[in-house]
Task: structure prediction
Amino acid sequence: MSDLDDLYQEVILDHNKSPRNFRLMADANRKAEGYNPLCGDHVTVFLRLQDGVIQDISFQGSGCAISKASASMMTAELKGKSEAAAHALFDKVHQMLTSETNGDAASEKVGKLAILSGVCKFPARVKCASLAWHTVNAALKGETRPATTE
Amino acid sequence: MKAVSHLADSRAPAGRFDVARIRENFPILQQRVHGKPLVYFDNGATSQKPQTVIDALAHYYSAENSNIHRGVHYLSERATAAYEEARSKIRGFINARNNQEIIFVRGTTEAINLVTQSYGRTFLKAGDEIIISAMEHHSNIVPWQMLCEQIGAKLRVIPINHDGEIVMDEYRRLLNEKTKFVSVTHVSNALGTIAPVKEIVALAHERSIPVLLDGAQAVPHLRVDMQDLGCDFYAFSGHKMFGPTGVGVLYGRGELLEKMPPYQGGGDMISLVTFEKTHYNVLPYKFEAGTPHISGGIGLGAAIDYLQALDWQGLTAHEHALLGYATESLSNIDGLRIIGTAKEKAGVLSFVFDHVHAHDVGTILDQEGVAVRSGHHCAMPVMQRFGVPATTRASFAFYNTTEEIDILVRAIHCALKVFD
Result:
């Protein structure tokens, strides 16, 4: 498979076309906005957090296929997870996206999200894939400043 | 003289702009990217450099390197002469009245910041109004916003119409007794629109309001003449006009520069320093604190030599034909919408798809060897005006060809196939 096919796999294209949990959440108790100042991608992540567990998660915003698919898959993966588990997954995803050499090893630990490992071959696109994750991190921390990929 | 042999004498063959021959002057254009011939359509971000410019940089460091305006030794005198000769070349290229009106800066951004901080903070006050347009690059928005915050002035914005043209009636309405500065772009980096700058300057001057023109995207495509334009300040970057990065020019009318205070303090901008008082140097050195980008200035001089040797009539016709061909070819692609359809345009084609994001287009084009810019082009308000998060921008230079546009079209079809 070429690098490009690796990047735009069917699953990613599907999440881009019909993103999961792509909605406002009226009863969210955590919310954070994320910007990629380089390209103008913008995402808002909503959380309903109860007793340290993510009861519900959704997102809205605009961005490329990679950022949209990454956000969609992230929400599917994090629903029902504990805060601690979410942080741990963030670290692993981050490692997978950024380490060209350890990408394979890192991708083994992230389950379905391994489909995003092709991004590490496109350094300019890593920030697209990590934006939603930085944003959920900010939402979990209850930060009021918008998250950025910088 | 090896350097001279690289100069493209494009006047022969007569009447035709010989692109194939010109491309030989640009070594970077010969390479392959991802196994495909490089198609460089990101000239709005930075242009490629002819061999003569690359040689000038190497020559400076291998034969002339030393500090300028200081040493009495041989090398310093040679470097100083080369640097000042570059200033003269720039003066000639833009038809300024004298060399004192040519200030070397890092680029367009620094040139505009120099004007906002030196002229703006000295001569503008609370309640004054500054006019810019809705199609400015961030570098002609943010420095003015910073000035407004510092002194309590107000920023007014001339709207653009749906084609991306400045609405002149609105400009006339915005001009009033409180207006104390007008700063607009000559050519929009995101849309390619050529603004009616002579009319903009004339209307401001009727009220004695000074005008700055951001010429970063104009200088690579149009012959600019300071006496003809009549503006008070003109800012441009070396790297977008086939010269090195890190060097640019602020042209200012001598009378205004004379009464402006220095922008930065340090070496070279002084004539006498004591702990009680410092006397500033004369123009243009008053605005050139610290050791400048000497090689960059000399390289920019070489870029101007290169440009001066080109047949500009042929160049203009070639670029016009390129833009026309690209506009027509891309218009035929289903679902593609061109952003920026002004009557007067320079080599920029911005476009969007409803269902495919600009970044994804950019990545797939890159795999086909085509370099474009995807994003907001440092002009977020322009994106907001057209209701798009980002565009894909192909920006042309005189070394581009219609064959390359055919490659772009095929690459766009590849992108559409992925997202079919």
Notes: The first helix of chain A runs from residue 3 to 7.
